[in-house]
Design a protein that fits this description.
The chain is mainly α. It has one domain (about 20-330): Ribonucleotide Reductase, subunit A (Orthogonal Bundle). It contains 13 helices and two strands. The protein has helices at about 20-30, 45-50, 55-90, 90-120, 125, 130, 135-145, 160-180, 185-195, 200-230, 235-260, 270-285, 300-305; strands at about 315, 320. A hairpin with a 4-residue loop joins strand 1 and strand 2 (about 320). Helix 3 crosses helix 9 (about 185-195). The protein is globular, with a radius of gyration of 20 Å. The two termini are about 35 Å apart.
């Protein structure tokens, strides 16, 4: 029986026969969702950004902070994939997906370059916010701290303790970074798009959210597969540790929500963004087979509706207008 890690019999160059068919399905979903930022027009966004009347100071600040957080968070995630996860997950179909995900992280980083160039923003200001904005720095530092041991070139996943450390790393990046720390920002940017403001950036955030939903699904399947094959690591104390990490992450994301959008947006206050983070955190806990903590309802049902569209490419408009597999994905 093949194992997803610590399998001396695995040949990472031999992809057939496949043992983890869910990895192949996530790969195919990623390919079906292919997009690039240049397909999306930014003309209206440039007009909105230059106009003194369209955007409030709060909205401008919120846009800047979300561009600042995501621009470096995507790079952090890509580094973790390429330098840590790919090295330790030697199963070939999982590696195939990781290569696809790494490409998508590069597309996301390119998106923020495209946004900066289109709007004439100062790239030093945007790409240094992970050092200059405390609530952004705290989120990035939290995730980096979770992965210190795994980035050690001498680290191995051999043994229960090291397997636990590796799962902790996977939870840090897939469940916390991509599954919690991204979602207040998604809600803010999509709420702005619902007001017909900065629609180009809003569409790009929708497409990033689509990609991230598949990243999250793959990460949770990977975590659950490692747990199933190494049940001795999933102790009561480790489950409690993971739950506490997620609760700490929720506090940090709620702090960010209040900092990035203190006055809220039209019809939405900062507390509702915080409730959404708690709702999302419960979904993440359940996905890795842990009990819910918060019991909140989704305050933004339109978050699913906003991205639940079949999209395919319209070559005359040179933009993405339809996707192929939206109905099969779980956006929250």
């Amino acid at each position: 029986m093949a194992k997803i890690i610590n399998d001396s019999k695995t040949d990472p160059n031999k992809i057939l026969p496949m043992h983890y068919l869910w990895a192949r399905e996530h790969y195919k979903s990623g390919v079906a969702n292919n997009w690039t930022p240049e397909e999306i027009s930014m003309q209206q966004d440039v007009e909105h950004w230059k106009s003194p009347d369209v955007l409030s100071d709060t909205e401008r600040r919120m846009i800047m902070w979300n561009l600042g957080f995501f621009s470096t968070a995507e790079s952090l995630t890509a580094n973790n994939l390429v330098l840590a996860i790919y090295r330790h997950v030697t199963n070939p179909e999982c590696r195939q997906y990781l290569l696809r995900q790494a490409y998508e992280e590069a597309v996301h980083t390119d998106t923020f370059i495209y946004c900066c160039d289109s709007l004439g923003l100062d790239p030093d200001e945007i790409f240094n916010m992970y050092e200059t904005i405390p609530s952004i720095k705290e989120k990035d530092d939290f995730v980096v701290e979770l992965t210190t041991s795994v980035f050690d070139p001498n680290f191995s996943t051999e043994g229960s303790e090291n397997t636990q450390k590796f799962v902790r790393d996977l939870i840090g990046f897939y469940v916390i970074m991509e599954g919690i720390f991204f979602y207040a920002g998604f809600a803010m940017m999509l709420a702005l798009k619902r007001q017909n403001k900065m629609v180009g950036i809003g569409e790009q955030f929708e497409y990033i959210m689509r990609d991230e939903s598949i990243h999250l699904a793959f990460g949770c399947d990977l975590i659950n597969a490692i747990k199933a094959e190494n049940p001795e690591i999933w102790t009561d104390s480790f489950q409690q540790e993971v739950t506490e990490l997620i609760k700490q992450a929720v506090v940090l994301e709620k702090n960010y929500a209040h900092d990035a959008c203190p006055q809220g947006l039209l019809g939405i206050n900062a507390e509702q963004f915080s409730e959404y983070v708690e709702y999302i955190a419960d979904r993440r806990l359940e996905r890795i087979e842990l009990p819910k903590v918060y019991g909140k309802k989704n305050p933004f049902p339109w978050m699913s509706q906003a991205t639940d569209l079949n999209k395919e490419k319209n070559f005359f408009e040179t933009r993405v207008t339809e996707y192929q597999t939206a109905g099969s994905l779980d956006w929250d």
